[in-house]
């Protein structure tokens, strides 16, 4: 078979295999290979690496789009000096994503404005960058969706949305008290993920001792905490709200607490 026929066949086959990145890089890769007398195996290596890299980038972009993250907050943007209650070494360890591979949880507790959501998004972004699937929602969103899907008798659709991602972020647990069916559903989600060794990041303005106030049933609250805390890193952030601190430092009025 002549080189021209082989070339046409390779183009056609790359197209049929939907290897778009390899197809569009084929000509420059072949030209460089000829110029530098590269081996056939090096050409294959380069084309396959290009294709896999492009696929990974596409996956990351899709995962980011589907994640529901509310704002692009990164760990690099987090000001540790402003929040000495947050130990950087613990966050750095979490950022290695060992907790995701081991299916461990992260609990970020503290009052409003201390950076809980920021840190949860920062960790979620790290996970997405490394190819993991993430789903972020507030407890309020979860309850709203639970009620809507239950109404339509389609909890079978909602449950996988919450159990399939590698990381589930549940933001703002404790802002609204849960009714019994909401709490039971939340327990079902947490328990399922616990059994599947999949991570949950929870942010809450309530300390563990106050979880009885969120849940209608203390037995359920205990069972849920039990699952969440079994393998978990807890960060108790006490300090002052970041925005209020900034206002104070800028000499602006700070509303009374
Ligand atoms: P929380 O979830 O604890 O109520 P947020 O994470 O929403 O607080 O933080 C409130 C705002 O302050 C956000 O815009 C967040 O990015 C910012 N912020 C809080 N703490 C820090 C920090 N230590 N460094 C940088 N930005 C911060
Ligand atoms: Mg928050």
Descriptive notes:
By secondary structure, the chain is of the alpha/beta class. Helix content is 57%, strand content 11%. The protein contains twelve helices and five strands. A five-stranded parallel β-sheet has the order 2-3-4-1-5, sandwiched between helices. α9 packs parallel to α11. The N and C termini lie far apart (81 Å). The mean pLDDT is 94. It binds adenosine-5'-diphosphate and magnesium ion. The site of magnesium ion has 5 residues, from α6 and β3.
What is the first-to-last residue Cα distance?
81 Å
Beta-strand percentage?
Answer: 5-15%
Radius of gyration: 24 Å
Bound chemical compounds: adenosine-5'-diphosphate, magnesium ion
- Overall pLDDT level: 94
Strand order of the largest sheet: 2-3-4-1-5
Total E-strand runs: 5
Compose a concise summary of this entry:
The protein has helices at 3-16, 20-35, 40-66, 88-95, 98-101, 116-129, 139-151, 155-163, 180-195, 211-214, 218-230, 242-249, and strands at 105-109, 134-138, 167-173, 199-204, 232-236. It has 257 residues and is of the alpha/beta class. Strands 2-3-4-1-5 form a 5-stranded parallel β-sheet, sandwiched between helices.
Features:
11% strand, single chain, 257 residues, binds magnesium ion, binds adenosine-5'-diphosphate, 12 helices, alpha/beta, five-stranded parallel sheet
SSE inventory with pairings:
Elements: H1 3-16, H2 20-35, H3 40-66, H4 88-95, H5 98-101, E1 105-109, H6 116-129, E2 134-138, H7 139-151, H8 155-163, E3 167-173, H9 180-195, E4 199-204, H10 211-214, H11 218-230, E5 232-236, H12 242-249
Helix pairs in contact: 2-3, 9-11
The structure holds adenosine-5'-diphosphate (ADP) and magnesium ion.
